[in-house]
Structure formats: C-alpha cells, structure tokens
Amino acid sequence: MSDFFWKKLNLYGTWIFIAVLFSFLGFLLSIEIKDFDLWLHLAVGKHIVQTGLIPEVDILSFTRQGVHWNNHEWLFQVIAYLSYLVAGTQGLVNMQTVVVMATVAILFMMGYNRERPLTPLLLLLLVILVYKSRLTHRPDLFSLFYFASYVFVLSSHLHKKWSLFALFFIQVLWVNTHGFFIFGPLMMLIGMAAEYVRRFIPLPFEWGRTGNLTKEEFVRLHVGFLVVSAACFVNPLFIEGVMYPLKIMFSLSGETKVFFENIVELQKPITKDNLFAMRPYFHFRLLILISAFSFMVNFKKIDVSALFMWAVFLIFSINAARNIVFFAVMAYFAVLVNMQYLDFSDNKIKVSEKIVCMLSLICKFVVGAWIFQLIFALGLNGYYDFDKMERKSAYDGKFSKRSHPYKAVDFLVEHKIQGNVLNDFNSGAYLIGRTHPAIKVFIDGRTELYGAKFFTEYKDLWLGDKKLLEKNLNQYPITAAFLHAGKTGVPAPLLQYFHKSKEWRLIYFNYDAAIYLKDIPSNQKWIEELEIDIEKWQVPEFDLLALGLTNVPGFQYALRARMLFNLNLLDLAEQEADMAITIHPREGFAYHTLGKIAMKRENYEEAFKKFRQAKLVFGNNMELRYDVAQAYYELKMYDKTQEQCDGALKINPKSSKFQIFCGLLDVQLERYEQGVNRIKDIKKIKPLYIEEVLEVADLLYDRGQIDLAREVYQVAQGVHDSHPKVLERMKRLEQ
User: Fold this and answer.
1) CA dist., res. 160 & res. 162, Å (int)
2) pTM over 0.85
C-alpha cells in the first residue's frame, strides 16, 4: 500500500481519535452534581432574577445580615438559576457542557496540527484529565473559558483589529463572573514585561529573537492592557469590584491561612511530604514534567513570554489545588510554543512516511482503547440509592444523594420550619439553596464575607468548645441547630451539649443530621408535633430480602451508630453498628464504632479486635490510629503504643491530640521532663483536649512530680481558665 493510503488512513484515525476525546469529555460532564456552593448561587440568582437587584449586603445569614457583601459572581448566579429554571438539573448539566466543551474546543484549535496532530491531542487529553478533578458547577468553569480565550487571542490574533474588542468583551463578562478576572490584565502585563526583556536585556542563545512582537503588536498590547483594565470597572461595585482580587491576594499571608489549612480545594496539591510521589494529582505532575522538559529541549529558542506565563501560573497552581487546571492550560500552551520552534529536519534517523503513519495509528488505537476502558471503569462508580432500592450511577447528571444531607433538608422544607439555624460550614450553602428565605444560616462557603477570625471561632465551636458555643448562642438569635453528620459524625461534645440542654428539643435524627429546635414559643407547634425521645430510639428495620445479594455498604446504620455513640447511648449504637455489619460484613466504620463502645465499657482486648477489623477494611486513618494507641496503652503494651505515636507524629507532627497522648505515654514510662516539654511545646491546644491535658498532669501529681504537674496544670489553665476541673486542680495545688 502506498504512502498516500497510510497518510489518508492516519488522517481518518486522527478524526476518530478527536471524536473519542470529545466523547470522553462529554461522559465526564455527566457526573452527578455534588458541589454545595452551587445551591447558594442558585438562591442568589433567583433573588436577582425576581427582584432585578444585585444584593450589596448579606441577605443569607443571620451572623452577617446587613454586612456589605461584594457579590462578584452575580452573572454566573443568574446564568445558573436560569439554566435550572428552564430545565432543572439537566439545565445545569447543559450549562457546564457548553462552557467546558467551548473551552476545550479553543484549546483544540490552538494546538491542532494537520501534519503532527498526535502530540497536541495527547496533551489535550492530559489537560482534560486534570480538568476532571475540577468539573464542578461553579464560576470557575466560566473563568477557565475566559482564560483560554485570552490565551488564544493573545497568542494568535493580537495583530487583528477585532482582538481588542474581543478582549474588552471577555473582560466585562469575566469581572462579573469570577474573582479570577485579574488574570486577564495579568497576562497582558506578563506579555509586556517579556517583550521589554527581549528588547532591552541581553539574553542567551536566540531568546531575544524568539516570539518577539512586531511594533504594531507591541503597541496594541499596551493599548489592550488599558482597554481590559478599563473593562474591569464595568461591574456593579466599580472600584471596589476591581479591588476585590487584590484584597484577597494581599491577605493570603495573614489570618486567612486558616482557610488554606482547612478547605481541601485551597490546600497545596504538592507538598514537601509528597514532592517525589506520583500522587495525588498525577496528571498535573505529569504536565509539569512534560512542559518543563519542552523548555529544556528547546533551550536555544525559548519564547520568554511563554516561559514567564508558565512560571507564574505554576507558582499560582502549587499554592492551591483549585488552581491546577489554569496551569494545565498554560502548560499545554507552553509545550505548543516550544514544539513550534523545534527543528526536526536535521534528524539523522530517516523514517518513511508509511512507518510514521503506522506508529501514529497504533498509538491512537492504544490510547483510544485506554479511554474506553477508563469510561467503562468510571461508569461503574456509583452507590446504592436506598430510597429506590437500586444502584445510582455517579455519572447520571443528577444531584448527589451521597454528598447532600437531602433527607434532613427535605424534612425542614416539608414542615416549613423557619428561623436562624446553627449549621456547619459545608451544609450552609445547601441550606440556603433549599430553604431561603425561610431559614438564615450561621455560616456558609463565602469565606471572604465571614473572615478568618469568625471561621476559626466557628471551627472550635463546632468541635464542642462549650464556652464559645454558649457565647454564640447568647450573641445571636439562634432558634435551631442543624448538626450535619457528614462522614465523620457530629463531634460528641457538640451533640451532647444540645442533648443535655433543657432549652433544646430534638425533632429529627437520622444518618445525615440531628436537628434541634430551641424551646421558645415560635417553635412550639413543631416541637409538639415532631419531638423525638432519643432514649427510646428504635433501630430501623432493613429488608435484606429486598436487597438480595447486592453488594452495598450499610453506611446509614454506621453513621447513626456513631451519632448514638457520641450521645453515649452505647446499647443503641451497638445495635445500629451490628445492623451495618449485617448488611455488609466489611463496614469498617461500624467496626470502628464497636471498638469505641468496647473502650467505653473498659473491655480493651475486645476494643483492639474491633479496631483491627476496622483497619483491615479501610486502613489506618489518624482517628483509628489514636484509638488503637489508646487500646494498647490500656492493655499496658507500651512498645506498641509508642509505635502508634511515632507513626502518627511522622504523618502529622502538628497533631496536638497525639502530642498530648505521647506526653502521657512519656510520663507513664517515667520520662517526666520529656513528657512535660512535649505538652509545653504545643503551639495551640484546643479546649476540646483539656481533659487529656489534665490526665497527663494528674498522672504526674499521682507519681509525686508536683512541680512538673503544676507546669502542666498551668498549661491547662492557659487553655481554659474557667474549666471546673482546672479550677479544682489549681485549688488542690495551693493547699
């Protein structure tokens, strides 16, 4: 067969591969809707559409009610709400599909090369795989579309007259959609800086002549910067709207670090602990290596603009996981630029056109087969829908039933409950989307509105700091508590506070949440109708015959078991955990709870057995490791206890809970000063751990180490000076 035949066949193979690539993307875009923040956007979008007004003060919470709010994402909110209004969840899926497909299409147009199509297409696949982790229905989708559009216009069409009009239009949309609109002017500044470097600073090799702009393009770049900067002011808040991202950037080194430590998407994707690992974010790491290598092989003809852009967005991406997809686009662009300047004509190894086409076809076939295998594997992802007693796919384009506390919120909606609700950070936006304006929340995902100080206080409150909890209950007119369980359950001190309080009444209890109402006149009708006596809780029956042989976890029973354990209702918790294991013998969460129950009953050998079963199922997380260490400690197996302590502190040296426990072990082993120093060296001890600190001090006191005990009691006093046990211990020392 002739070279022409193989060339034609290779071309058809390319177009089939492109179809497979975009089909894969379409499949990924059918993922269920999990994002909590979307609900807040839908609520605000509804408000804007119905009133014609963009709220300038907070209307969603009672803790920030009336406080000025820079709602810089209002345009996305309107688009999202209208999409949902027209076609429900399918409308949201369609919105995401259009924006993401348009973004990838722009990248495809930037990189497609009829003569050498394979490399850009494989790079585009990597970009899609990085994008996969950020396919959420949020303003970021639009931001990336604008970002890719900017790169496309600046790299290929700056010389055209329409380019400035296009950039102005994009920038106006961007500034009203997402805070990352600052990237537009930033890219133009980087381009200008690179051109100045090329023109006025001696550069090695051919860097000064590679990618340089014509005089007309250089002038247009300056004018374009002024144009897009002016476009930034086309927003409802004018100067304040422009200043928003700058304020955020300059606050990153201060108190706002707490957000980066506690919110997953704001955490660093690459740290010193996983620097040389392949995971997490394998495809992101691979793009870093490939793009860096492209600069190395093209070291004589590096385009300074591409290098500067690549470096800036690499730094930006490694500081927060949510930013990695922006670097993916820039890495893709950088490799394309470097490929453009590579000269293959001097290659001494001559390969016929036929062989090249055959190898290209084989590569496309292998990668295409891998994509289909990946689609098949992802298609198996899902979970059991206990409402319908059938499996629910994770790629059905519907709202997630696993992520959202939908049953608890359905309950609020059904009974038309109103008021100011104390809630956790994650469920705030969902409550707003489902219940606004009947319910106002304590906190939601708008970190810039609440601020670092409030968020830090909320964290300690949620963990059960009684002093902070009572302060907020007195400060704000809170009428209800929505205690969303999540995967880890409601913290025991918080749950027990409401359970023991005579002012609060339990009206809802299930695996997803416990809901309490304050015993006030406005809540009486709901309390009389709905109040639950949790002491008389009946474990729900489960129809195993209806389930049949389907392999599903008993997570609902396991989560209720943890809630009941935290309420100190051990017999009920044990029944729930046993049912979870009946449904699925490898329900590790249930084994963990059974181990905790055995610890409470001082049956430490049985506790260890249950903890061991839990570890065999889901590995050794920090909470389980701590419980195993406690079991070893109570069994007086101190060598094993030390192994757990050392292993935990190696994983997380800042774990104050483990540092305190290791201090207790030191004292038990008569390493008194080492144990005391360990306690004193902890930078911050949460009030939640006051009992553990007192246990260390008490052991020192019992051993006759009075002076050292005094030092640890003083540490406890610094944590919570009004705690009854701290006051009692300090009084004892003075006698």
Assistant:
1) 6
2) yes
